[in-house]
């Protein structure tokens, strides 16, 4: 199995070394194709990329996987999603993902993704647990369960929790089924991807730590008003929100989780719950006993 990982970056020298290391040093029986697309940075991001390229080519950095290729380019672009489109146009792997230049993959992330997708080849996209890093404080995230119809209809990221991009992996085939991300988008390109992918396949939740989202001042994700405007511009299905779903999410914030889970099971759960856990280092499909909605 070959992973194609894209990192879009612009003036990311403060944290990008940590991001690069979290990809390059993944250990396991797989190949990694790592592509970094820089938007003509004015800090020393490019110098860092040149340094890593030389260290990999001269074997100063030794990968812990079967093979590692590291490619980067730096040129003016039309924003983050333009860079991501460019990266995936270059990709040759089986499994795709992108991680921003201040976020991280957990150790062993690619292994748990590989085991899950090889055990269940019918799965075309999967989301692990996103944890958080703020001012050097690490907080473990939760495993969320996702309803395929609700993803397609655009509830996640509006009235339901966000699908955190940094812990999502998908097949090359699924990427080829959707259109490239509109480069006019600045914030909600991931929302476009999820609503588009859910037209074709369900998202499986993987109860394993996969990524770390770094919370810091000034990041684009804090501009929620602009994000909401972009969401509405790309939302595939409009005007079908039911009072029952809205009421459920209002109540779920005010009642114990066990009760909200019961209500979900009774009224909304899909025929098959798309959930994977690990038992004795083996991925298994099962019903989640406790989960976030």
UniProtKB/TrEMBL annotation:
Residues 4-150 form the Glycosyltransferase 2-like domain. It comes from the Bacteria. InterPro entries: Glyco_trans_2-like (IPR001173), Nucleotide-diphossugar_trans (IPR029044). Pfam families: Glycos_transf_2. CDD domains: GT_2_WfgS_like (cd06433). This is Glycosyltransferase 2-like domain-containing protein. It comes from Candidatus Campbellbacteria bacterium CG22_combo_CG10-13_8_21_14_all_36_13.
């Amino acid at each position: 199995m070959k992973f194609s990982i894209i990192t879009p970056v612009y003036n990311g020298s403060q944290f990008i070394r940590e991001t690069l290391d979290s990809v390059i040093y993944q250990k396991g029986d797989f190949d990694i194709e790592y592509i970094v697309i820089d938007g003509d940075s004015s800090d020393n991001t490019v110098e860092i990329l040149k340094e890593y390229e030389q260290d990999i080519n001269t074997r100063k950095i030794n990968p812990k996987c079967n093979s590692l290729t590291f490619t980067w380019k730096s040129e003016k672009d039309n924003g983050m999603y333009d860079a991501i489109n460019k990266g995936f146009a270059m990709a040759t792997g089986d499994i795709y993902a992108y991680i921003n230049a201040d976020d991280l993959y957990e150790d062993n992330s690619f292994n748990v993704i590989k085991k899950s997708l090889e055990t269940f080849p019918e799965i075309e996209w999967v989301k692990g647990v996103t944890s958080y890093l703020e001012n050097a404080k690490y907080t473990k995230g939760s495993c969320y369960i996702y309803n395929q119809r609700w993803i397609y209809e655009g509830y996640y990221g509006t009235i339901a929790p966000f699908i955190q991009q940094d812990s999502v992996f998908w097949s090359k085939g699924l990427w080829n089924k959707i259109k490239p991300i509109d480069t006019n988008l600045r914030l909600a390109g991931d929302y476009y991807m999820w609503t588009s992918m859910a037209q074709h396949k369900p998202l499986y939740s993987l109860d394993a730590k996969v990524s770390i989202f770094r919370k810091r001042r000034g990041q684009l994700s804090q501009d929620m008003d602009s994000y909401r405007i972009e969401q509405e511009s790309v939302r595939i299905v409009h005007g079908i929100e039911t009072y029952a779903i809205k009421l459920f999410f209002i109540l779920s914030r005010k009642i114990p989780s066990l009760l909200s889970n019961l209500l979900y099971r009774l009224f909304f759960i899909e025929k098959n719950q798309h959930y994977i856990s690990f038992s004795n280092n083996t991925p298994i499909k099962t019903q989640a006993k406790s989960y976030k909605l």
